[in-house]
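Field: sequence (string)
Field: structure_tokens (string)

Example rows 1 and 2, in order.
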Amino acid sequence: SFKRDSYKSFGFVSDATSLLSNSDSVLGRDGVKESIAGYERLFSGARKNVGATTTADSIQHREKEYATMVNSFYDLVTDFYEWGWGQSFHFAPRLKGETFEESIYRAEHYLALRSNITPTSKVLDVGCGVGGPLRNIQQFTGADITGVTINEYQVKVGNQYCAQKGIDQKCRLIQGDFQKLPEKFEAGTFDAAYAIEATCHSPDRKICFSGVNHCLKKGGLFVGYEWVVLPETGYDEKNPEHVRVKEGIEVGNGLPTLATSQEVVRALEESGFEVLDSFDANRNVHSDREIPWYQTLYGSFTLSGFRMTHIGRVCTHSIVSALEFMRIAPKGSVRVSSLLNATALDLVEGGKEEIFTPSFFFLARKK
């Protein structure tokens, strides 16, 4: 039977069967099909009619239903993410000679460094996923870290991993809505906070960031990486091809709509923060000293990274199709796999054209 292990990655075929029908899941066997159908309705017209999901009505519908949208998205994709990517659900700038895993750790440790996290710090992880960064940063700094995710399944999985590593007294995941942080925490609870490619799910960043501000002590630091489109390097909202890529990224990642870096900075400032630093951590994406952040999705054929590549995703999709046909994987699993495969292509295209980055870095201090 399937057993999660915080110390190892999933086997390519050996764990696929049990992972897609594991007992940890909060969805019943019929729940996947129902959930993906409901999710797809929130993006009606996506990948069929360019501009269909960029209308004010479409965006407002997702903003209104964001809690259901994001929770359903992660019920559906958490196992696929962990299978193909690992426990840290994010990208990272990557230097030549650096492995994918090393780049992930460096990006997380950089946040800890810039936010002055120490062994005595109390820290909030805003939108923590299954807690990969939370555990890595805790082991790097010794800090006490609380992660918040809207998704019950991720809480269940993440706390298992914390216990397996023997750090569950120093870090834990709780279920909560990062749009309603004041309902979870008293004012001034934390010394620092970070968000890694998470608040792009927010329907209103000012509300989200104001909640983070509430949770921090005066002078507390908030750092993060944000998914944004890049008008400064070429994104044009009037270019149908750019809009197509943007919409593809949104539908494949449960986003109401992608913001610009300027909009992120403005939301921080309007939420009671002083923005001390901000930049695209992928600004040198095509330097001869870096490996593009999207390269893992695009090509490099290595044994350890095979599942992340285009060929690996095709193979995984075939396995999922076979498992669903044999009624081992729940109905709807193939549709989830197709959704993620399509958005991987959009992410690569956005990265190649430098019209999108998943790593807009910010450092802000509570006034």
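Row 2 begins here:
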Amino acid sequence: LLHRRFVTASLPGNTPCTGSSSTIKHAEPPHSPPPPPSSIQSPTTVQAAAAPSFAACLLGGAVAGTAVDMSLFPLDTIKTRAHLPGGLWKNGGFAGVYRGFAVATAASAPCAAVFFGTYEFIKSRLSQHPFLLARPPQQQQRWDTAVYMVAASCAEVTAAVVRMPFETIKQLRQANLHASNSAALRHVLRTRGVRGLFKGYTSLVAREIPFSFLQLPLYEWLKRASASAFGHPGPHDLPGLQVALCGSLAGGLAAALTTPLDVVKTRVVVLDKPQHILRTLGTLYREGGLRTLFAGIVPRVTWISVGGAIFFGAYEQSRAAFAANGI
């Protein structure tokens, strides 16, 4: 489900999807000077820029997410095993690194649909709020970013409800605790009940929201800095490779800073620990200091950083292909 981490970065940035409010419209000040003739686009040009439909964006995200999962899922397994007591080698090492992959793949489409739908709905409603429409243009960047962050957080909270049962079974399989997905499911239902499938919901949300709040501002700042450094008119004029690099760097740094929360989530899900996040963080620190709190940081950062580059490339190519075929 790595692709959802890059949705907040990809949708607001370059080419918006039709049928969604990808940019916020702000009231123009009176007596604004007309744009120079060279900057005026013909209706045909504007229509071409807005060509990809929401369906094309959604399908493109699903294809990109699957590409990332297939290529980098072993890193997720290694990270999960490193989070557990005893570390990587006592929890399976590099054997069976694709255990739980089928569950993760099955979760991708419904989670992406819920995330995209919630994100677009919240963003479109907030962008049309009278308070935001009345903001002066010089405050546009700040309020746009705030809207994206709030929309992404709401989408994470909603999508986590769909994701959590899949995540529970996936991590139990990655930890080598059960021979099959069905065995893991039967164990959870027998020992924890249906609520056990959602045991890690709070810790999952507690990880995803800080990640989104860190990733998006970093991504926007890196794009602005890159545009300035390389002489581009603005962040939306960056070539695809630079956009992918900005997304990868932002995702990698956000992943590093939120690693302790990821360790907490793994312990809660796999070891059936109580969801006391601050207490669990304290326990982890007493157990092994910063080394335990940041266990698995290398595969986590690599997974998300490299996944960002793969995602953006696959996303843009597949989205364009779907749009070209009338989707």
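free_text_note (row 2): Residues 8-16, 18-30, 36-51 have pLDDT under 50 and may be disordered.
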